[in-house]
Amino acid sequence: MIIPLFITKYKKDITIVEKELEHLKNSNSAIVRESTQHLFKSGGKRIRPIFGMLCARFGEYDIHKIKYPASVIELIHSASLAHDDVIDVADLRRGASTIGSKWNNQVATYTGDYIFAHALLLMSKIENPIAHKILSNAIVEVCLGELDQIRDKYDFDQSLENYLKRIERKTALLIAIAGQLGAVAAGVDEAIHQKLYDFGYNVGMSFQIIDDILDLTSSEKDLGKPAGSDLHQGNVTLPVLYAMEDPDLKRMISSVHKEMPQKELLPILDRIRQTDAIDRSYKMSQEYLKKALDILESLPENKHKKNLVEIAKYLGKRKY
């Protein structure tokens, strides 16, 4: 995926955040050092920290204050990935082996817990109580999202509302508070940092729907995992929900189970692609993106606002 050119302008600040993340290497436990390094080595574009940096530009920007919420959000995101891979019994993440497949799921679980704890330790460097309340509420919701994902596995009768709530907790929330916490750390007024939360929320919803589309339409090379992995792991996404409006196709999709060979999944994926499910899902993603851009339009002008527009469009219009 091509990274927007403007992001290179923030390379120096991203490097400062990366140095905060590297403190994970200081653990006395060799297995923790190795597993956390393995997780962070697998990549990541640091979209959430960049989001926080851009939103902080609405206030008094100081990277040595902004680096703490930016790092915290990235750590919580990484911890949730480690836990997600345990829930999904996934072997690959971004084309590399998961912690669970390289070690075991117990190591993966406790690595995620360790990263969560490190995030909370880092959060103690932020003195603003509003920031702590925002983060605490978010962690509660993220954990509920993990439980929702377990509950909804292979539930082919779940509602659209279930799906939307799940991706809100799984993805949209962390993008929303990444921007909001960056703004709070920069001393932005409440009315503005709340709008930045709403902006990030809608970007996050658009982003996750696009991710769910790409899981069905992209190649294994681009995804770093087999196409249709979400469905194979029992995660019912928006295109699948739309495709199941066809009773015959719903019967096919409902036959999916975790032991199903990949070759048996392929004709089901082909059938889904032949419906209007992908186009309808993309349309919903664009509706969220439009809401985000409308909110951004109402915010005060500054020279970094155009970069928020660009990152929103980048996240909401990816096609690999």
Task: Please give the structural blueprint.
Blueprint (H helix, E strand, L loop, with lengths): L10 H11 L8 H12 L5 H10 L6 H26 L3 E2 L2 E2 L1 H4 L2 H19 L5 H24 L7 H26 L4 H28 L2 H4 L5 H4 L5 H6 L3 H7 L8 H13 L2 H21 L7 H12 L4
Antiparallel strand pairs: 1-2
Helix pairs in contact: 1-4, 2-6, 3-4, 3-8, 4-6, 4-7, 4-8, 7-8, 8-9, 9-15, 9-16, 15-16
Label this structure with key terms.
globular; about 325 residues; Farnesyl Diphosphate Synthase; mainly alpha; about 0% strand
Overall pLDDT score: 91
- Tell me the major beta sheet: 2 strands, antiparallel
What is the number of beta strands? Answer: 2
Helix share bin: over 70%
CATH class: Mainly Alpha
Judged by helices, strands and strand pairing, the structural class is: mainly alpha
Q: Quote the beta fraction.
A: under 5%
User: What characteristic shape results from the CA principal axes?
Assistant: globular
The CATH topology corresponds to: Farnesyl Diphosphate Synthase
- Please provide the ordered H/E string of secondary-structure elements: HHHHEEHHHHHHHHHHHH
* Number of alpha- plus pi-helical segments: 16
Low-confidence stretches: none
CATH homologous superfamily designation = Farnesyl Diphosphate Synthase
* Total discrete domains: 1
Radius of gyration, rounded?
A: 19 Å
**Spatial gap, N to C terminus:** 5 Å
The CATH architecture classification is: Orthogonal Bundle
Give the neighbour order of strands across the main sheet. Answer: 1-2
